[in-house]
């Protein structure tokens, strides 16, 4: 199958490589030094997003945010100019669920399918081909793309109609951010009360407090290893999506708003490019507390 | 070994039964109709806490809150009156870590050991003998009691010195409460945005959002099964312990405070005796939203 892949960043490069290694003809644009190896492995470089779309049955996007997706689809020399009936757009970026429904509608009017399919699992998951993929759209489009998804991910779910993949991703980022806050506040309490937070974390694993976040991010807080991982600045973008969507849906999200303020505190003190487990440093600042790791 | 067990409530009864079945001589007081079966199985009823202490090497307490423990230890005909040098007090209640250090100091002055050993796992864990037990105190006292703990629990950790068991329990209740809030806000967002929260929960399991709470309490929110489980009113007591200790430690706990306010909202609307997953109903009230379960 001819597959276009637009967006060769930290995530996109290993994802595209899995498609090439899976035997597909993969069309690429904007190939730079860091993505030149994809051409050497068999990827076909063209000049524009329009040319990618012209030559591909499925066009995958992996871009930073909503305006980037809008521009690459409907800008000059963009994807829409190269589409013909029967092709499928697969947006694997993490963008607004509200904007997604509008974009899908415009693509559908061109006779093409649209899936939103954001991922979680980070760079590690992209390299290992073990991303979780949350998909919104029609069952028939999902069936058409499933074998392609399986080259990049493991836990692949058709959540519902168009936009529901992005909605699931926003829910994911809400839960992850707030669980980091939960673990940070619990371990900081333990530390300030004079207990060893590493021993407390150990005692709590296996019970109702247990989570992937207590396991991974709790350990980062204790060992003070805040190299990303997933950056606070990206989580701020995702929670901004959550809060904007919440406002347009008349849905109060009090804990999400508070979590975003803690990330804003991190940014204020120059910690915006740390891993999101660094949220604990905002609480430490409020508490005039040296570290969550001190016993 | 002769073991005293004081506090034959919902948790205490099955815990004491495991000790009797483990071959120990178990001294009981305040035996009522609901605990009569423990005497039939071999437990020895006496009249007062003082008499329990006189006849036992280890005296276990399983009581509701800090004042109950203070009264049973140092009140008239209480445990302290029956102690002699070399006995060990094991407080398995969930009470204040600050008060615990004072109580332990007074017990130590009588020549006796003191362990704080609160549990998590609820009535189900007590019946199955699979409680998590978080212990604070001296290694030598822990070694003396370990085989007794093993009759009641599975994940048994000596967290640190006296009080550190209670500190770990408070940290546990902070993390559990806030993770319930995280899952509630994420699933409510999904629902209000038009996705099926059951499908979203499924898509998120296995990734960084995964937790025991998403698994168990997330399902309760979706299926609207709010019979306890662990009651909101008890979680309010635990978060009150957390916030009181935080105040005395000069430690701000902003997310814990917000979570307590949501539990207070539940209590205000008559939901205080629901399972703590019912926290989602406070958010639904704020959002004028029928249920988190509606698709």
Quick description:
2 copies of one chain form a homodimer. Chain A has 295 residues and is of the alpha/beta class.
How does this model look, in words?
The structure is a homodimer of 295-residue chains. Helix content of chain A is 52%, strand content 13%. With 295 residues, chain A is α/β, with parallel strands linked by helices. In chain A, the strands form two sheets. Chain A has a six-stranded parallel β-sheet, with helices on both faces. In chain A, strands 7-8-9 form a three-stranded mixed β-sheet. The radius of gyration of chain A is 21 Å and the shape is elongated. At the A-B interface, strand 8, strand 9, helix 9, helix 10 and helix 11 of A face strand 8, strand 9, helix 9, helix 10 and helix 11 of B.
Name a few traits of the molecule.
homodimer, 295 residues, alpha/beta, six-stranded parallel beta sheet, three-stranded mixed beta sheet, 14 helices, elongated
Largest interface by Cβ-Cβ < 8 Å: A-B, 75 and 74 residues
The percent range for strand residues of chain A is: 5-15%
**Average predicted local confidence, pLDDT of chain A:** 95
Q: H/E order of the elements of chain A?
A: EHEHEHEHHEHEEHEHEHHHHHH
Q: Stretches of chain A where pLDDT falls below 50 for ≥5 residues?
A: none
Lateral strand order in the biggest sheet of chain A:
3-2-1-4-5-6
Distance linking N and C termini of chain A: 57 Å
- How helix-rich are the residues of chain A, as a percent range? 40-55%
What is the number of helical segments of chain A per DSSP (H or I, 4+ residues)? 14
Q: Determine Rg of chain A (CA atoms, Å).
A: 21 Å
Structural shape of chain A: elongated
Overall structural class of chain A, as computed from helix and strand content, comes to alpha/beta
Oligomer classification: homodimer
How many individual β-strands of chain A? Answer: 9
Sheet with the most strands of chain A?
Answer: 6 strands, parallel
